[in-house]
Q: What sequence folds into this?
C-alpha cells in the first residue's frame, strides 16, 4: 500500500514544524498504473514536484531539531497545497504540458486520490502541528527559474505570506541584509490560497508561519540542499528570537 507521506524526526522536541507539500514526483500504482501519461523529462520538471525542496526541508528540520513531514505523491496526482474545492486540485495542463491521466478524472478516481493521499497527508500534518501549543510552521517549496515563454525570475529566495506577517516580514528584511541574495517579498507568487496548507494548518490556528520558495537551480545537489537548510535554520532561529514569535 502506498504511503502518502513521510515523517522525519517525529520525536524531535523543537517548536518548529517543517513541511514539504511537493516533495516528490511519485505516482502510486493505483493512479494510471503508476503513470500520468507524460514523459520522464516532464516528470523530472517543476510541474511534477518542487525540485530540491525535500532535501532542504530535511536539512532544515535536522538543524532546527524539529520534525518534518514530506508528501509522497506528485502534485500532478493531487496537489496537497490546494483546498479540496480548488479547481486546480488536479491539474489538467501545467506550464505547457497536458496531463493525459487527469483529462477525464472520474468521481471514483478523484475520491480515491483524495482519500488515499491528500487527506491522510493533512491528517498527519494536523497531528504534528498540534503536538505543541506554540508550533511555528515553515513550509519549504522551490520554483523554476523561468516558465516557458515568460521572463526569467531573478529571485534566489522568496517569502510568501498573507495576513500573518509576524515571521515573514522580519525574515524578508533579515535575508535582504545578505549581500549575495535577491529576496522576493511575496514573490514569485503572492500570499496564500484559501484552503492551502498554510491557511489550513497555520493561519486557522493563529500559528506563526512562513512559506519559503527557493529557486530550484540553486538546490539541485545534496550539498546545496544541506547548505541552504543550515543557512535558513540560523536565520529563522535568529529572527524568531528577535521578534518574539
A:
Amino acid at each position: 500500500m502506498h504511503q502518502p507521506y513521510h515523517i522525519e524526526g517525529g520525536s524531535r522536541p523543537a517548536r518548529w514544524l517543517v513541511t514539504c507539500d511537493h516533495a516528490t514526483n511519485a505516482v502510486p500504482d493505483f493512479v494510471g498504473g503508476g503513470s500520468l501519461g507524460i514523459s520522464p523529462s516532464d516528470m523530472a520538471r517543476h510541474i511534477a514536484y518542487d525540485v530540491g525542496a525535500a532535501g532542504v526541508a530535511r536539512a532544515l528540520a535536522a538543524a532546527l531539531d524539529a520534525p518534518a513531514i514530506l508528501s509522497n505523491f506528485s502534485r500532478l496526482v493531487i496537489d496537497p497545497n490546494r483546498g479540496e474545492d480548488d479547481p486546480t486540485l488536479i491539474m489538467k495542463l501545467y506550464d505547457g504540458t497536458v496531463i493525459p491521466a487527469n483529462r477525464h478524472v472520474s468521481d471514483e478516481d478523484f475520491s480515491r486520490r483524495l482519500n488515499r493521499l491528500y487527506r491522510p497527508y493533512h491528517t498527519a500534518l494536523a497531528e504534528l502541528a498540534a503536538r505543541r501549543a506554540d508550533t511555528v510552521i515553515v513550509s519549504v517549496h522551490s520554483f523554476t527559474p523561468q516558465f516557458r515563454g515568460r521572463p526569467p525570475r531573478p529571485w534566489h529566495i522568496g517569502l510568501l505570506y498573507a495576513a500573518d506577517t509576524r515571521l515573514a516580514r522580519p525574515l524578508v528584511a533579515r535575508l535582504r541584509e545578505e549581500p549575495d541574495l535577491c529576496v522576493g517579498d511575496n514573490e514569485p507568487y503572492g500570499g496564500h490560497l484559501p484552503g492551502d496548507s498554510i491557511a489550513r494548518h497555520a493561519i486557522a490556528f493563529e500559528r506563526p508561519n512562513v512559506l519559503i520558495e527557493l529557486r530550484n537551480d540553486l538546490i539541485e545537489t545534496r550539498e546545496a540542499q544541506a547548505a541552504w537548510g543550515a543557512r535558513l535554520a540560523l536565520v529563522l532561529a535568529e529572527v524568531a528570537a528577535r521578534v518574539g514569535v
